[in-house]
Amino acid sequence: MVHISELIENGKVYFCDFTSRDDLYAYLADDLYAQDYVQDTFLSALKEREATFPTGIIATCYNIALPHVDAVHVKKNALIIAVLNHPINYVRMDKLDEQIHVKVVFMLLIKDISVHTQAISSLAKLWFNQTFMNAVLSVKSKEELVALVKQAEAE
């Protein structure tokens, strides 16, 4: 079983002031590449996948996005979370003609494809936990978020 807390411990948490998805993706891709999380092909792959398979999701408390790329563009398994100070427009995953305002981006970096489906399933359980989702917006550090996820995973 995949523990989301481990993927976050392997990953990063960002608190962002970006107002566009392109600016957010460019910043994340540059930083993740500099820290050896992803290949140099990551940004173009991320934009291409988002255009083909939108990732906006209406969740319990607020809208989220789950962008990800094929494993060939990733160097290690991790969960990157971007808490947005300003909602960013994403196309809905289930209604391609509708845009939604997203407050939190859960970016899966999965090198091991067998982990991918388990990670999405584990994340989905958290997204429907109202207490967890409300708390995500108030965390101030990666350590706080890991503790919050561990508590939710234990429930």
TrEMBL record:
Residues 1-152 form the PTS EIIA type-2 domain. InterPro entries: PTrfase/Anion_transptr, PTS_EIIA_type-2_dom, PTS_SugarTrans_NitroReg. CDD domains: PTS_IIA_fru (cd00211). Keywords: Sugar transport, Transport. It holds the Pfam family PTS_EIIA_2. SUPFAM superfamilies: Phoshotransferase/anion transport protein. PANTHER family: PHOSPHOTRANSFERASE SYSTEM MANNITOL_FRUCTOSE-SPECIFIC IIA DOMAIN CONTAINING PROTEIN, PTS SYSTEM FRUCTOSE-LIKE EIIA COMPONENT-RELATED. This is PTS sugar transporter subunit IIA. It comes from Dielma fastidiosa.
